[in-house]
Amino acid sequence: MEPTEKQHEVISSDGHLLVTGGPGSGKTTISILKAAQIADYNLRPQQKVLFLSFARATIARVIEAIEEEKSISDNIKRHIEVETYHSFFWRILKAHGYLLGLPRKLDILTPPEEAIALSSTRSQFEPDSKLSDEKKKEKKDAENAERCRLAADEGRVCFDLFAPFVSSLLHSSQRLRQLLATMHPAVVLDEFQDTNAEQWNVVQALGRYSRLIALADPEQRIFDFIGADPDRLDHFRKAFTPTEIDFSDTNHRSAGTDIAKFGNAILKGTFDQENYEGIEVKYFDSNPNQAFTTLITSTYAARKRLAKSGKQDWSLAILVPTKKMTRLVSDKFRAPPAGMPAINHTAMIEMAAAILGSGIIAHILQPDSASRLDTFISLMCSYYQGKGGDKPTKTALDEAARIRKAYDKWCSAINSGKKPPGKSILHATFEVYDTACAKLRTGEPNQDWQTVRAVLENGKCKRLTEIAKEVRNIRLLERGTQLREDLTQDWRDNGSYANASLIVQQAFVQEHFASSAKPETGVVVMNMHKAKGKQFDEVIIFEGWPNISRLKIVANLDRIVRFNDRTKVDASCRQNFRVSITRGRQRTTILTPEVDPCVLLIPEQ
Ligand SMILES: Nc1ncnc2c1ncn2[C@@H]1O[C@H](COP(=O)(O)OP(=O)(O)OP(=O)(O)O)[C@@H](O)[C@H]1O
């Protein structure tokens, strides 16, 4: 790769830097070379350049890019540390959190665990849609108070508290700031436009003694809802007077195509070309059959093109507007209509439910313990309390309460020497549970896991069936994964999965921090929001369609723009669409319903 003139400017600049540019303009690539240059000339043996990003997906891409960069020696590579904000913050908190009065031993409260821990606080309020602004604030404060209590009293710290805690630590201790600067004299801040207030506080403290290199595309700011500030770049300019280098619209990712141009047209709402090379818009009839058939045939065609190109590890992303669509597409790919062949794929779904469900399978794999049934019921309740993440539904919370109540009744009947109530919902549950527990184990974790999962899925208890279906989405047991190795070792050490529950729990924490995950290859289905920072050889964007009755649209869900209503168009939905479009290297295909095409594709008057 021959760096452009602007990229050379980055290499030759000193001091704080602000590098801006559109998607695929080469910001990440040059920042890696810059980090290598600093590591080569300015670092002492123990020091490292720190590369911080929000998403593990970006980390995976950056690590891969560093590894593949032939001009950087192995020795220099060792001096570049690539981390998520989360894992960097956690490193600081574990070592120095006690300075804030936190317990010496800290544990991470993972999002599903946090959802469980906060469920009773949340259940005291009506659903968000029914809350006044004042009540919403009250709810938020109550949640925060509980989070802080969990951290201070129990040493269980949720992700949302990482940045505020680290910020307090750094702002109150000059020694700590100096220590970090000694470890990391230069820090690269990827996707700087998305930095929220708490993270910005940390960055300000880091910048006192370390050199900062911020990479940003102001137009890619799609995280408004988590507090990213449109003025953040100005804050940086004011605080650090950086040298600014703007790559503007240069586009290396999809060079030779008009994909980036089309992305900009979407942003502006005006199209100055009839056709855009590399962009195809296809229309489908507004019914599930036609919609999915169009998606599936487009996916076959893209897959064929990519296989034919001879490229190994090709990637094809199917990007959809909602979580619900991610699931629907994944289900349809597994079992397409009209006998069409299935499409092998990975779906990136919200993991809370799958993680909690895995806890239940792990518990079943683990041999008997005295309070086994109590634990099992607690895990079932936790599943329903936590499966909705930070937005639990009332139905799920009620379900948890129903299970708890049924179990209390069950126990009091047994304790007074009676039979459990004949109509208890737990009869079916315990029957399936006992069958799963009784299955022989082979010591091959994947097989044993699947056996238990199958019993739950095919049994008579609809709750366990649901849980087993969720767990199907977990791919942590594939060959070579830590979870599989740890379970195998557990079996070797104990002749049973004596520590299965603990191992599964740790695996998810590790998974959250793992930086070794490779960028996705093959066919991947995900929510459009999740595509940020990634790139794929081809992208297919597939949205929902209107439900029409008597020539009128009666429902219009899962659209790129809410209800596909022009009055709902704002900068953030344009940016979101543009980010998705510009993830494609060679081609981006957009599938939209013919009767009511995505309004962003229609020029503004
Ligand atoms: N000077 C160059 N010549 C050729 N290819 C380049 C050049 N600079 C970067 N690339 C390639 O272009 C692609 C996109 O680059 P990169 O990921 O650095 O862009 P980016 O600005 O960080 O993008 P985004 O903000 O959209 O994530 C990469 O595959 C990279 O290898």
Describe the structure.
- With 605 residues, this protein is α/β, with parallel strands linked by helices.
- 50% of the residues lie in helices and 13% in strands.
- It is built from 23 helices and 16 strands.
- It has helices spanning 5-12, 27-42, 56-68, 74-77, 85-96, 111-123, 133-154, 159-172, 174-183, 197-206, 232-240, 259-268, 288-308, 323-334, 352-365, 372-386, 394-415, 426-438, 445-458, 462-471, 482-494, 500-513, 571-581; strands at residues 17-20, 49-53, 80-84, 107-109, 156-158, 186-189, 211-216, 243-246, 279-284, 315-320, 346-348, 522-527, 536-542, 547-549, 552-555, 584-593.
- The chain has a six-stranded parallel sheet, with helices on both faces.
- A hairpin with a 2-residue loop joins strand 14 and strand 15 (552-555).
- Helix 12 (259-268) runs antiparallel to helix 23.
- The radius of gyration is 26 Å and the shape is globular.
- Bound molecules: adenosine-5'-triphosphate.
- The site of adenosine-5'-triphosphate (ATP) has 17 residues, from helix 2.
